Amino acid sequence: MSDILIAVLGVTGAGKTTFISKATGRNDLRIGHGLASCTQDISSSRLEIDGKRVVLIDTPGFDDTTRTDGDILELIATHLAATYAQGQLLSGIILLQPINGNRVQGSERKRNRLFEKVCGPKAFSKVIIATTMWSDLGNESIGTQRVEERRREADFWGGMVANGATTVRHDNNYESARKIIRMVLAKNSGPVVLQMQQELVQNDGRLAATSAGRQLGLDLREQVEALKAEIEELKRYPGIPDQELRLELQELRQKMAEASYEQEKLSRRRSPKINLDTIQQWATAAGGMASLGAALIPLYYALFDIMIGGDCDTRHEIQG
Ligand SMILES: Nc1nc2c(ncn2[C@@H]2O[C@H](COP(=O)(O)OP(=O)(O)OP(=O)(O)O)[C@@H](O)[C@H]2O)c(=O)[nH]1
Ligand SMILES: [Mg+2]
């Protein structure tokens, strides 16, 4: 019996480690109770459910208090590349999303887009979007309304839902966590190669050439432009005392320098190169024609790329 791998993703503080702790009954996992982000590395926890061996993969969240989204994406990409090379594919992805935020923040949209690009449309049917923090809501109907809004919007959860993703409320207890894992198992038609894994193979592990990397690059560019505009506007604004203006400008310039540095750093970010021979070996060992065929798709892409000498950076996203 092989392990069923499920990744748990979501922004920092969404409740990923808590979810895994509830599902497994483990009380040795580090849960963050302060403002700082908690989980630093990717780790696995095992459990058995209905006679099936499940491995839950805990991940550090985007919007980390000390690391940039680029750092987190690189960490996830490195893990995805390494596990792909070993033939360990995900059978499900649980995206945890706190529902207690009082409006659809721009940052929530950004991270949602990034998540979509990591998975790719082919993997949407393996996604469960589980909403957390319901007990923090004064009025539950607000939470229901927020879920509906996000489901309706095509460029929020709508696209994923239309392609088979499911949304569910998580009640922060053992039964709820197990129910969600059962939902992943019920959906299952076997493991999936994520878009990001395929793209890392095609692009020698270069993050900036993947859809998620390109999305992050666009977000950073947008951020730099917005800060530039804010600086110009502030300079024109009349009546701000010199000292105050200087401090505000200094802060904005610092933020702009950081975003520009991140932009430049993104082009140097890489996951380890995935060895195509290794993939071929495990794919062959996997036996059955279906799994072999699925496993070799990225290999065909990569070989095709070598043959035509294609420019990976400008490649369109792989559609489902
Ligand atoms: N009310 C409520 N609180 C929760 C829930 N899930 C987690 N928490 C609390 O939220 C805080 C953060 O939880 P974590 O499990 O550490 O969050 P995380 O997603 O692992 O965060 P990082 O490791 O920083 O990425 C802790 O204080 C938890 O007790 C939930 O469903 N409802
Ligand atoms: Mg955590």
Automatic annotation (TrEMBL):
Pfam families: MMR_HSR1. Keywords: Coiled coil, Hydrolase. Residues 217-269 form a coiled coil. The keyword RNA-binding does not apply. One of its GO terms (molecular function) is hydrolase activity. Residues 6-63 form the G domain. InterPro entries: GTP-bd, P-loop_NTPase. Gene3D superfamilies: P-loop containing nucleotide triphosphate hydrolases. It comes from the Eukaryota. This is P-loop containing nucleoside triphosphate hydrolase protein.
